[in-house]
Amino acid sequence: MNKNRFLIAGALILAGVYAFYFTDWFTPKTLQVFHTYRNLQSRPPREGTLPALIFGLNRSSRITEIKLVSLSAYQTNSNVLPLWHLVSRSNSVPVKTFFYGQKIRGLQPEVPGSRAQPLAPAVNYRLFVTAGNIKGEHDFALQ
Hints:
By secondary structure, this protein is an alpha+beta fold.
């Protein structure tokens, strides 16, 4: 009888160790966000124009909030006005990539009628993306 209890306890301990070290059940869920630039015009870009800024996620997600702020302003005041801020008022569609300033189905500007502000080169920015209780952020600068 004691031998059976000992074997069951050992199996439960091994299962717990396996679950902790070899699964992601106990790690907080995060979104990995990245960016890239693409010239989407067939003609060469005019001088001074920036290529399209595209953001991507590591998995397709129903985004509930997108917020882009100037990093230097955010570091001094976490309540800085965002340059682009979209929130979900209903169900958003799952997306894996999106353009800066894009209208995404299910997301609306936090301030009705507002639009994405122009970005400047050589300025650091931070993008916050929330999908339910999963969050991600990404720092970047335009080249």
